[in-house]
Design brief:
- The chain is mainly α and 296 residues long.
- It has one domain.
- Helix content is 56%, strand content 1%.
- Strands 1-2 form a two-stranded antiparallel sheet.
- Helix 1 packs across helix 10 (150-190) and helix 3 packs parallel to helix 9.
- The longest helix has 41 residues, at 150-190.
- It binds zinc ion (2 copies).
Length: 296
């Protein structure tokens, strides 16, 4: 990776958060009960990743009100994954060009290290360059959240310190941030390397039982690549998909509706050549009328 390709703002943020976490953990010490903070806040944040960041904002798997869309936007920012717009842009690009030379994080094409962290700190990962997020950019409140994604996280840190002092701050606030980051980086690599595919998706995506359980459903990644507009990643009872269950609860509460619950492959246009660049049914939401179908 050339140094001119590196986004130094992102890189220095990573280094600063890792340094601050190491300092806070050292200062706080260790007790088993502190892990409760890390696991509890991690669970809230990772559910935000799979439900809000990935399924709702990147794939628009349901409709909702504009008010609840904003709530999901706030939940998305808590993952510290540059949300809700930037991740959606990069992720739609991933589905469109999966495991081709244009994919941002294909381990097969770019190598493990670049697929893990290189793409995140690359200037190529940029929503203005990658596009395909016209449906999200038309909501000013989402662009504000996308720009100031760190502010809700600062408030979370302050609240955690007020409630549980240093153990909550260090383990719940900072360590859980690193957990979400490194799980997210790992899954971009692992989901395209380890496991077995159920469907022919013209890429390297795999299903993985263990990761499916650990990531609240994200591990059924080949199912997801085969039918990316569906909210449902696990297709059978034994493919536990907690993220999908959350949407069923939200639907019961009337907060979301028209949830796409389809199963089975929707890949309908295998490429006629070997470039594999346009083989999938990627939803491209640059058209305002199309976007109107989602948040009213
Ligand atoms: Zn993938
Ligand atoms: Zn996806």
């Amino acid at each position: 990776m050339k140094s001119s390709e590196i986004n130094y703002t992102i890189l220095s943020t990573f280094i600063a958060v890792h340094g601050a976490t190491a300092w806070a953990l050292w200062k706080t010490g260790f007790e088993y009960s502190y892990l409760g903070w890390a696991i509890g806040i991690y669970a809230i944040r990772w559910l935000g990743f799979t439900c809000a960041v990935h399924r709702y904002f990147a794939h628009r798997v349901c409709r909702t009100s504009r008010a609840f869309q904003f709530v999901m936007g706030l939940w998305a920012t808590l993952t510290m994954a540059r949300c809700p717009i930037k991740f959606a842009s990069g992720h739609r690009h991933h589905h469109l060009h999966s495991d081709t030379s244009r994919d941002l994080h294909s381990p097969a094409k770019k190598g493990i290290l670049y697929a893990y962290i290189g793409w995140v700190i690359s200037k190529n990962y940029d929503e203005d360059r990658l596009g395909r997020v016209g449906d999200l950019k038309r909501y000013p409140e989402l662009t504000v959240l996308n720009r100031f994604y760190y502010l809700p996280n600062v408030l979370l840190l302050v609240a955690l310190y007020a409630i549980g002092e240093m153990p909550a701050f260090a383990y719940g606030g900072l360590l859980s941030t690193l957990l979400v980051w490194h799980v997210a980086f790992s899954v971009t690599v692992v989901f395209h390397c380890i496991g077995a595919p159920r469907y022919e998706t013209y890429d390297e995506s795999k299903n993985s039982l263990i990761l499916g359980l650990l990531t609240f459903g994200e591990g059924w990644h080949n199912n997801h690549h085969a039918n990316m507009a569906s909210c449902r990643m696990g297709e059978y009872w034994y493919e536990l998909d907690v993220g999908y269950l959350v949407f069923l609860v939200l639907e019961k509460l009337g907060l979301v509706w028209d949830v796409n619950k389809s199963v089975g492959s929707r890949i309908y246009r295998p490429v006629e050549d070997d470039t594999k660049e346009t083989c999938v049914q990627i939803p491209i939401f640059d058209d305002a009328q199309e976007a109107d179908r989602f948040a009213a």
